[in-house]
Amino acid sequence: MNRTIFTAGVFFGSLAVVLGAFGAHGLEQLIDGAQIQTFETGVRYQMYHAFLLLVLGNTQRIPERQKKLVYYLIVIGILFFSFSIYFLATNELTAFNFKSIGFITPLGGLLLIAGWLVMGYRAHQHFN
Asked: How far apart are CA 118 and CA 74, in angstroms?
């Protein structure tokens, strides 16, 4: 599982760099500054959580079963939170109105928070 978690961290981190560059250079002529900032928020949170996955994949303080739970919470949270932000920020460029699925953004945020809390709780148990 550690290899899977670490690989996911590498994947999401690399993708965050690509999307960040795309947002800064590819979207500047297509969407306004506020939407670019929104897009960058998704990139920033994706990168934060990619780092978290790298740490999670390398820690021995959390049992494997709990790592798996944290991994799923974080990955689904990234997909719901960051990717919905990408779609919402670029909504004008598509025929589909992504505002209709905007409710998944806060759900993704809750999953990210839950991932942090479960990880912190489980790690704290093993400090004693």
From this structure: 11
